[in-house]
Amino acid sequence: MQLWLIPVLPLAGFLINGLFGRRFSKGAVNAVAIGSVALSFAWVLKTILALSPLAGAYSEHYFTWIRSGIVNIGCDLAVDRLTIVMLLVVTGVGAVIHVYSIGYMAHEGGYYRFFAFLNLFMFFMLVLVLASNYLVMFVGWEGVGLCSYLLIGFYFDKKFATDAGNKAFIVNRIGDFGFSLAMFYMVKNFGSLDFATVFKQAPGAPEATLTIIGLLLMLGACGKSAQLPLYVWLPDAMAGPTPVSALIHAATMVTAGVYMTARSWAIYAHAPAAAETVAIIGIATAFFAATIGLAQNDIKKVFAYSTVSQLGYMFLGVGCGAFSAGIYHLVTHAFFKALLFLGAGSVIHALSGEQDLRNMGGLRKKTPWTFWTMMCAAVAIAGVPPFAGFFSKDAILLAAHHYAPWMYWLGTITAGMTAFYVFRAMFLAFFGEYRGHEHPHESPPVMLVPLAVLALLSIGGGFALHVPEFLGTAGGEEDRALMAISTAAGVMGIALAWLMYVAKPALAESFAASMRGLYTLVYNKYFVDEIYGAAVVNPLVGGSRAVLWKGVDVGLIDGAANGVGARARNIGSILRLMQSGNIRSYATWVLFGSVVLIVAMGIVGGLR
Amino acid sequence: MDVILFLIFAIIAVVCAINVVVQTHPISSAISLVGVMGSLAVLYLLLGAEFIAAAQVIVYAGAIMVLFVFVIMLLNAGAESKHGRSLVAQLLGAPLLVALLGLLAYFVERLYPRGVSVRFGGFTHGTPLDIGRALFTTYLLPFEATSILILIAIVGAIVLAWKEID
Amino acid sequence: MTEVPISWFLTLSAVLFVLGVAGFVFRRSVVTVFMSIELMLNAVNLSFVTFSYQLQQVNGHLFAFFVMVVAAAEAAVGLAIILTVFKNRATLNIDDVDSMKN
Question: Domain locations in chain A?
Fold first, then answer.
């Protein structure tokens, strides 16, 4: 079946563009980059056709990677239904975003480098999705983190971009630490990292073991998928180019945590405490991030917090046991969130780089295509039926209600907030009078066609793709009342945004003024970055500087190395005193030595 | 009889040796050294080493000591001067010497309490015949090597002292 | 008692040797130092011959013979060196020949 072609084609694209792209024309770079991803997508389709109807898992083993003691890890790729869903999302949405990037990056420097990194990212993401054991998945996991760092810091001459890249990578590392510990624990308890082996042994293992593994895996997912408390890197990651935000920080990389958790459902199904933790973290993050998103003025930041919030929904679904609902939301979210980001990119491109919502307005007439496609995404994310987001969000909320009703209510409130802030952004950007100084113009077709494709998917994705049925669990019974309540919350959010930003604009100002304290708190993201900085980062850096650098490195290690030299010199200068040039003293020393020798020989010979 | 002979010449040897060390003028030391060698030759006779005794007198006392005396006269070496010092030698020298003597004497006494005794005629294989036989069979290689050594010494001495002649 | 215990010879040899070392360490004239060396060599010769008597073999005599030969060669060369040093430095004091200092 040659599954390896799926990731290797983008890798080839990376190598060609990376090594030779500097000499290529833009057309050649485009052809290589988009061609590799398109070919990969085609191969995915071929695989699906060849393997359907896929009931179990189909795997291919290439070579043994590590064989040491009890650990035997091969380089294996496997495909089952969950993998197919992820593959379609990654390669499909990835290809669309690659096409969009041609237009967006047309005037930027480092054109070939951008596409090379994008292809490298596709390679690692596909390895992550196709892996059939935790270690190969970890390779992909780390690789996407690397590419995220490279692409966030793409404008490497701007300090805030490189700082954001550092932050993303370092915070991800904390999560990776949890993932590594989980892998070690798995090896110790199950003797293997293969999915098949671990999941077969999971039902019989003690619950404490599974809980520990589940919690550690969740720590890894918190880092990669930006959940509490490791979400802080995602808003800063908006420093990268917008296609990067769309592909990596909306559709694919950040969903790796959800995918990993869903893949490990065998562990979470038998460790209720860990699953509950996942759900609580999910709903807490969803609510928390939604509140921050209410007050942001940068259009990309609004969508970034929205991503964190929606990821929280996915984890809520997985934690409640509705794994397929979580994956369903992953798929629909990929469509409408990527569309929102790409649309924001189109707006930014139209305004020649302006990102502040306060300087936008009235773009409805100037950029109609962008407006209508983004509207499709906005209603989808608000959960208005019959768009895609409605089906997936409802599946999660229903499962939450079965699990713990308070989660349902909190989730519904969050849905209302989601609708509010998305439409706030939409109204501020597209309605009213234009408040800026640029000359808005519509984007070129190469950027608009991808928007249209994603808009169609946002509208129709709910009907066409019956993801839960595909994944094996039929949709739960439908509680009309709950569905109505959550839909109403979404519509109320839209109406409130209309009221505050279109009908009576002054209302927003007075509302913010009346709740000055709360507004400041939310606007400044609850000062979380500052708290982390003061509590964790600064002590660590200061401690490292004082203790590890000055104390250990300079004092101990340099001191030891220099000290050895200094001591040798001291001993030498003492011993030099013996070289007096005086023959009589030499003779005396010889005499001394011979007396000692005679005594020693006597003792050794046993004559004492 | 042997004991008396031994005692006399041993005491002469020791007294002359002390004289070598104690005298200030080198020529006195040289003459005392000749005395030591002479007494040692008698002791060799007591030990049955006829050839060695003869060689001692002829080579050592007759040639080497004469050489020493010639050089002393050539250098016109006077009595020893008093300046120059070595702290190490002064501090450590005496104790170490006493220790050395003590150790050697102790070991000798422990190893040979009453064992073999020496009497004149107790060893008859020290004749030139025996020496020659051993020299030219077992010790042929050292013999040839020392011949070359003497040659080198002659050449070296001539080279070193060359400028003295003219 | 007409026989001399062999340990007396060895003790005598030790005494002569120590006297030779004493002369080497305590005297300041180069020639006297050389004569102390000859004294040491003689003491060792006595030891060799004594052991050869004890073992009733002639090998000790041979050793003593070779020691004598080498002592002769050494005396020749050494005195030549002393002459050269005296010519260069006009002193026979051993403490003044210290250019190997430090």
Answer: 274-523, 530-605
DSSP letters spanning A445-513: HHHHHHHHHHHHHHHHHHHH--HHHHTT-------HHHHHHHHHHHHHHHHHHHIIIII-THHHHHHHH
Cβ atoms of A393 and A486 within 8 Å: the answer is yes
Confirm if B41 and B4 have CB atoms less than 8 A apart.
no
Q: Are A381 and A310 in contact (CB under 8 A)?
A: yes
User: Given an 8 Å threshold on Cβ–Cβ distance, is C5 in contact with B44?
Assistant: no
What residues of C are in contact with residue A573 (Cβ under 8 Å)? none
Sequence length of chain A is: 608
This model of the complex carries an ipTM of: 0.89
- Return the DSSP state at C101: -
pLDDT number for residue B113: 64
Split at pLDDT 50, 70, 90, the class of A607 is low
Residue type, A293: G
CB contact under 8 A, A607 and B88: no
Q: How many CB atoms lie within 10 A of CB A402?
A: 15
Contact: B20, C36; criterion CB under 8 Å: yes
CA B89 to chain A, closest CA, distance in angstroms equals 5
CA distance, residue B70 to nearest chain C CA (Å) = 10
* Per-residue pLDDT, C66: 95
Do B99 and A595 make contact, defined as CB atoms within 8 angstroms? yes
CB contact under 8 A, B17 and C16: yes
Helix or strand run (H / E) with residue A124: helix A111-130
Give the Cα separation of A81 and A103 in Å (integer).
34
- Bridge partners, residue C5, by sequence: B117
pTM (predicted TM-score): 0.70
Query: Do residue A607 and residue B110 have CB atoms under 8 angstroms apart?
Result: yes
Angstrom distance (rounded) from CA A352 to CA A367: 13
A contact test, residue of C28, C32, C93, C100 with most A CBs within 10 A: C100
Would you call A588 an interface residue with chain C, using a CB distance cutoff of 8 Å? yes
For C39-94, the DSSP string reads HHHHHHHHHHHHHHHHHT-SHHHHHHHHHHHHHHHHHHHHHHHHHHHHHHH---BG
What is the pLDDT confidence band of residue C99, given thresholds at 50, 70 and 90?
Answer: confident
Residues A28-39, mean pLDDT to the nearest whole number: 88
**Each residue's pLDDT tens digit, A439-466:** 777 788 888 888 888 888 888 776 666 6
The shortest C-alpha distance from B13 to chain C (Å) reads 8
- Go through the domains of chain C in sequence order and give each one's CATH number: 27-90 (1.10.287.3510)
Å between C56 CA and nearest CA of chain B: 7
Question: In this complex, which of B93, B99, B107 lies closest to A588 when CB atoms are compared?
Answer: B93
Q: Do A587 and B89 touch (CB under 8 A)?
A: yes
The answer to whether the CB atoms of B49 and C27 lie below 8 A apart is no
> Residues B157, B159, B161, B166: is their CA dihedral positive or negative?
positive
From C3, C6, C81, residue closest to B112, measured CB to CB: C6
Give strand pairing partners of B117: C5
All residue ranges of chain B with pLDDT < 70 are 80-86, 113-115, 163-166
* CA-based nearest distance C102→chain B, Å: 15
Q: Alpha-carbon torsion A342, A345, A349, A350, what sign?
A: positive
- What is residue A277's three-state secondary structure? helix
- Close Cβ partners of A118 (under 8 Å, ≥ 6 residues apart): A33, A98, A101, A151, A243, A244, A247
Distance between CA A234 and CA A289 in Å, rounded?
Answer: 11
Question: What's the CATH number for B1-78+89-122?
Answer: 1.20.120.1200
Q: Is residue A413 scored above 80 in pLDDT?
A: yes
| Subunits in contact with chain B (3 or more CB pairs closer than 8 Å) | A, C
